[in-house]
């Protein structure tokens, strides 16, 4: 298809880890495409996996009604299927064998006459999408992830809901922490970025925030717990990112998903800290790993609005012939950036972020 030709038929897929607001985007893309431009819309099941396996089905207006507030994704997703680096089995030693199956994915898209593909995902999905662009598939990306770590957009949908859930958890843990005079450590997701911990820690009034961007000194963390206890404070609340690590130390790996293009899954730092702090301070400590509860359930109003704006803008970009771009929010304005600028990159919390300064100024420490 030539760039000058009008788009008549599009595919939509959700890739990577799920997050609240995916259905709101699918709805916005499908409804805008059908009602405003009379496009034909197909849903690709389980992200790039469905494109590789040719599981592609029509999406109608009715299919996307009543899903605005629903968590998860009606299309399903996968965080193990990048067409350019796809696990096709294991060698005799059990090691995964990867192959480039982009040809297969492109063939399936062509079989359904897809003029373009809307890829809703994070950095891994944008990386897969960037490879498809090289094979002349026209792509529009929409930034999704609870981690809020995509380059060139100030915010991703899903983040606000994750922060809301994590803050609610911190609020609840505070009351039991107070009753038992304990050090309570709450572990939050985010991979290598501390956005969720920074925001939920600030919103929940955590006393100690540990994020991947600032290596912590265990001695200072313990000293703060002891100091608070000596000053008669009933408890200490620690908000820690799954990717946080001590000065010169390593992140705690929960598991390695061999067949995934991004195989490392973090998790467990709160339990390590719990033991270390209890041993050094003699204070009673407990750890809570919030885990996937941060990714499930209804999106907040903010995420529904953002998702709706992103989905609508994606269709506008397609109709304007602005391909191979990801929708983005910059300084409160909807815009778009080249997908290749986003693929395989992560946006970490800058050390001069004003919220870090605000937390410090209101008495919290980052363990540095
Ligand atoms: O990227 C979203 C995320 O929830 C991360 O915060 C977390 O590290 C990872 O996905 C967990 O992946 P999985 O669902 O494969 O355990």
CATH topology of the largest domain: Rossmann fold
The beta-strand count equals 16
User: What's the CATH class of the largest domain, please?
Assistant: Alpha Beta
- Describe the main β-sheet briefly: 7 strands, mixed
Task: Give the second-level CATH assignment, the architecture of the largest domain.
Answer: 3-Layer(aba) Sandwich
The proportion of strand residues reads 15-25%
Mean pLDDT score:
96
Task: Give the C-alpha Rg.
Answer: 22 Å
Total count of helical runs of at least 4 residues: 10
Order of helices and strands: EHEHEEEEHEHEHEHEHEEEHEHEEH
Which key features would you list for this structure?
368 residues, alpha/beta, Rossmann fold, 2 domains, 7-stranded mixed beta sheet, 4-stranded parallel beta sheet, 10 helices, binds 6-O-phosphono-beta-D-fructofuranose
Written overview of the protein:
The protein is α/β, with parallel strands linked by helices and 368 residues long. It folds into 2 domains: 9-157 and 299-341, 3-Layer(aba) Sandwich (Rossmann fold), CATH 3.40.50; 162-295, Rossmann fold (3-Layer(aba) Sandwich). Helices cover 35% and strands 21% of the residues. It has 10 helices and 16 strands. It has helices spanning 22-37, 48-53, 102-111, 123-134, 159-180, 195-204, 218-230, 269-281, 301-319, 354-361, and strands at 9-14, 40-44, 56-58, 81-82, 85-90, 96-99, 116-121, 138-143, 183-188, 208-210, 236-241, 253-256, 264-266, 285-289, 325-330, 333-338. The strands form 4 sheets. It has a 7-stranded mixed sheet, with helices on both faces. The chain has a 4-stranded parallel sheet with strand order 10-11-9-14, sandwiched between helices. Strands 4-5-6 form a 3-stranded antiparallel sheet. Helix 4 links the parallel strand 7 (116-121) and strand 8. The longest helix has 22 residues, at 159-180. The mean pLDDT is 96. The protein binds 6-O-phosphono-beta-D-fructofuranose. 6-O-phosphono-beta-D-fructofuranose binds next to strand 13.
